[in-house]
Amino acid sequence: MAKKRPQTKADRHRTGGGVSTGADIPVVGAREPCPCGSGRRYKACHGRAAAHAATELVRRPFEGLAGEGDWVALRELVPAATAELTLKDGLPEGVPSVTLATVLPMAWPALRREDGSVLLGLQNDTASGDISRDLADTLLRALEARPGTSVQSRRAPAEGPRLQDVLDPEATFAPQVHTGFEFWVPDAENASPEVAASLERANAAAIPTVRLECVDAAYWCRTPEKNHLRWVMPHPEEQLLDALARLHAAGRSGLGEDTRLVGSFRAHGLVVPVWDLPTAMTAQDVEKPAAGFAEHLAEALASTAPLTPEERRARGGLTNRQVTLS
């Protein structure tokens, strides 16, 4: 087993290996004395709590943000989309806008454009168990980055702010789904041949996706075999599965002829039911059935009656086909 290279002070600053409580506590290594004065090594004292906070998985990282379901969808389902973000304290001088993007070129965590605007990438690996904290750290660093540069990933400080602390909770979250990644460059039509070729490759791999207008956080997509609707729902999981089972047992879980509720998956603490749709069924075609299903679901969610044997069997089928993405 290879020996670990001793951590230098420069390394500690880069990786966020130490902590700061706001009282000018210096950055320290894991084996150095804890700055609290206990006499113990940092990793056995305050470092234990800091390490736990940095690695503990936050089950619903986007809870409390406007459009939580859409945050989950843009993170896990949608190839190309953007959404304007409103900061709680307003935009800093020299930053005309902040835009969330599903993915950025080269999988950059964030980009400060030449005009000072900021693009924040959502579909990136994060260093800790709290996506919200990592994204907030990346965003704050992007606001201070030099125009025309990208921001690299790092582990956010354990006590650092989360998106819920940085973004305006009253602002609307309105994703715009794109057919391709032309939003990467300010003037895609006049892009260089190299950039144009890169965009063409990225666009060819993107699954056509449309966000429904009649309900929240529901996304139609087209695949070679069939179309699908994937709908991120905010309801408590057990209550939602009971409601879906009631509708399934009653033959009301579909979205029209030749459609079928095939199961669901969990993503960032929310349940995402999935329907198979005929290849001829467009996003526009599914708008009205989805609105009707939302009404039926509201009724089923309000029921407090015990599940019947048929409903329990339907629920078992749904849970057996459930997977967890995060």
UniProtKB/TrEMBL annotation:
<feature type="domain" description="DUF5926">
    <location>
        <begin position="61"/>
        <end position="325"/>
    </location>
</feature>
<dbReference type="InterPro" id="IPR045970">
    <property type="entry name" value="DUF5926"/>
</dbReference>
<dbReference type="Pfam" id="PF19348">
    <property type="entry name" value="DUF5926"/>
</dbReference>
<dbReference type="InterPro" id="IPR004027">
    <property type="entry name" value="SEC_C_motif"/>
</dbReference>
<protein>
    <submittedName>
        <fullName>SEC-C motif-containing protein</fullName>
    </submittedName>
</protein>
<dbReference type="Pfam" id="PF02810">
    <property type="entry name" value="SEC-C"/>
</dbReference>
<feature type="region of interest" description="Disordered">
    <location>
        <begin position="1"/>
        <end position="24"/>
    </location>
</feature>
